[in-house]
Amino acid sequence: MYPVELKSWRKTERTRLIAARAALDHATLEKYRQAIDAHLGRSFPGLASAKLAFCWPIKGEYDARHLARTLRECGALTALPVVVAPRTPLIFREWHPGVELAVGPLDIPYPVGSPEVTPNAVLLPMNGWDAAGYRLGYGAGFFDRTLAALPKKPAVIGVSYELARMDTIHPQSWDIPVDWVVTERGVYRRDGNKLAFLGVPLPGEPSKFASPVCYADEIAPGYFGTPEK
Predict the structure, then answer these.
(1) Are the beta carbons of 196 and 131 closer than 8 angstroms?
(2) Listed residue (186, 184, 90, 197) closest to 133, CA to CA
(3) How far apart (Å, rounded) are the C-alpha atoms in residues 131 and 158?
(4) How big is the CA angle at 63 (ends 111 and 218), to the nearest 5 degrees?
(5) Can you give the pLDDT at residue 70?
(6) Measured by CB atoms within 10 angstroms of the end CB, which terminus of the chain is less buried, N or C?
(7) 81: nearest Cα among 59, 106, 45
(8) Please, which residues have CB within 8 angstroms of residue 190's CB and are 6 or more apart in sequence?
(9) E strand or H helix that includes residue 92
(10) What is the pLDDT of residues 43-60, one digit of tens each?
């Protein structure tokens, strides 16, 4: 697919997927949110001590603010992305209730004046996601630039809904796949060049999934303070 064709195709798919998500009623969105919160909490216990970046929800995206509050109570530090300039990597600033917010591109709030944070885990919303773990975002490329620019790539957990699954986004050289995908169905892990569905942990049983902390050495040594090998 030629670049112009790809750009047009992605725009059409993005519009279709956002519309499908927007058509979900509040009760369904809340049901999905609670399921995703539960999967994340049981499958990634390391998030409770992480420097976690998440995104303020827009247009019916998964709302990570509820989980972020729970994780902060356990000791996590939470941060939101800040757009510095077009075609420039994002920075992340600490956020919790009480930190001043301003309104940025797409009417997304961002923290003002709080300390800058280098996250070791990211909850990344996805308009669409494919079988290889590639994400269809909003088209500006901010997160791909940011992940490529960070000195140590954080553990990236894509969060979305099953209705947003695609065969492929036709990834290009600059597209960076997520490490995991979590939907209302459960947890997927990227193995090689494809996603593997890991299932759903049952309430009360030990997690069958490694947390980002446990998987840190597989992604890149030293991300969570573990010795480099």
Answers:
(1) no
(2) 197
(3) 13
(4) 85
(5) 97
(6) C
(7) 106
(8) 132, 133, 177, 178, 179, 180, 181, 196
(9) strand 91-94
(10) 999 999 999 999 999 999
Compute the distance between CA of residue 171 and CA of residue 131 in angstroms, rounded to an integer.
11
> In which band, very low, low, confident or very high, does the pLDDT at 217 lie, cut at 50, 70 and 90?
very low
Two tokens, residue 130: 């494919």
Alpha helices in the chain (DSSP H): 3-22, 26-43, 65-74, 142-149, 212-219
**For residue 171, which phi and psi values (nearest 5 degrees)?**
-60, 145
Q: How far is it, in rounded angstroms, from Cα 88 to Cα 93?
A: 16
Distance CA 126, CA 135 (A): 6
* pLDDT tens per residue, range 174-214: 999 999 999 999 999 999 999 999 987 555 544 444 444 34
Token pair of 13, please?
A: 């798919």
- How far is it, in rounded angstroms, from Cα 62 to Cα 55? 9
Question: Which domains are assigned to the chain?
Answer: 3-219 (3.40.50.10420)
Cα 133 to Cα 124: distance, rounded to the nearest angstrom? 12
Residue 48: both structure tokens together: 């409770």
Name the amino acid, one letter, at 67.
Answer: L
Q: Measured between alpha carbons, how far is 194 from 22 in angstroms, rounded to an integer?
A: 28
**pLDDT single digits (tens) 120-140:** 999 999 999 999 999 999 998
